[in-house]
Amino acid sequence: MEAQAMAKRSFNSKQFLNKYAMYLILMVLIAVFGFVEPAFFTGKNFVNILTSESSRGLLALGVAFCIISRGIDLSLGSVMAVSSVFSASLVQKLTYSTLILPGLVNLPPIPAWVAVLVGVMVGTSFGLINGLLIAYTKIHPFIATLGSMTVARGLALLYTNAYPVPMLREDFTRIGQGTMFGFLPNIVCVFLLMTIIATILLNHTRFGKNLFAVGGNVEAARAAGINVERTLVLTYMWSSFCASLAGVMVTARSASGIASLGDGYELDGIAAATVGGVSQTGGVGSIVGCIGGILVLGVINNGLLITGVSPYLQKIIKGAIIVIAVVFDMRKVARKK
User: Fold this and answer.
1) How far is CA 20 from the centre of its chain?
2) To which H or E segment does residue 113 belong?
């Protein structure tokens, strides 16, 4: 009996380490950077980390669903951009000399919430297209989302003629620049809210269960009566919804729509999800791990920056971390087999 109890305790310890290893690494990183540079270990700096990583965090929450389905979404950064310029063009101050939509001068001011809704709808439509292509034409997700990445970026550049969209009204910029409780930026609050929603979707809905089944074995999922096509369409719509929301929030915070917004952000989102244990083999992942990956990369970015490490070296370190995370994931999958 004693031997069995010890074995059970050992098994539980292993489970604990597998589930929360990312947070143990996070605590070690915080301790190291705090020791090297005392300015790192302040409440203000931690809020800065959350603020700077919230937009990438939203992308990670979206793409994690795609990776669990054994897919990928490369269009996230471009979806941010197209959502940014479309929402911003609706709330430019009418006194600005070069409006993106000159016809607005003759209309009543468009409410800020309408601009947010339009930006999110335009971005999410790319997810709908991605999902339909992947589900019904069997195009590989890499190719489908690569194509939509190019189309979305081109649409953003064409819509603005590659110019910024400045001079946005205060009622819109307040959405991104405001704070909750006097210190927590709205973009962080949106990220935290979306984290809760993502957790509920993944762990407490039929959609989440179907998603894991599709990622684990698509043929077995189909045989079990799961509507694989609908699950994939909803997955890519969710991913683009998260990206478009990030684009609108960043636009409101920076008070300018930018067609080049989010360039390369899709890789940061994929990296955060992968580092957080969302397996590239599909069917495995959690929002807890994903958040851990976001925070680890955020702490590394901030810690290296605040300690004066070259930004070029930061890219090398980040790339190495991603490769190591994938290698560990592959070894874990191989051991299970």
Assistant:
1) 20
2) helix 112-136
Q: How far apart are CA 207 and CA 226, in angstroms?
A: 10
pLDDT tens string, the chain, 337 residues long: the values are 455 555 445 556 666 656 667 778 888 888 888 888 888 888 888 999 999 999 999 999 999 999 999 999 999 999 999 999 999 999 999 988 889 999 888 889 999 999 999 999 999 999 999 999 999 999 999 999 999 999 999 999 999 999 999 999 999 999 999 998 888 999 999 999 999 999 999 999 999 999 999 999 999 999 999 999 999 999 999 999 999 999 999 999 999 999 999 998 998 899 899 888 888 888 888 998 899 889 988 998 888 888 888 888 878 887 787 777 777 766 665 566 5
Other beta carbons within 10 angstroms of residue 16's beta carbon come to: 11
Give residue 264's identity as a one-letter amino acid code: G
Q: What is the pTM of this model?
A: 0.90
User: What is the C-alpha separation between 195 and 27, in angstroms, rounded?
Assistant: 21
324: how many CB neighbours lie within 10 A of its CB? 11
Domains defined along the chain, listed by start:
40-336 (1.10.3470)
Output the DSSP codes for 286-301: -HHHHHHHHHHHHHHH
Q: What angle do CA 67, 73, 75 make, to 5 degrees?
A: 165
* Location of structure tokens 């979707």: 201
Q: Considering only CA atoms, which of 105, 86, 136 is closest in space to residue 244?
A: 86
> Do residues 265 and 55 make contact, with C-beta atoms less than 8 angstroms apart?
yes
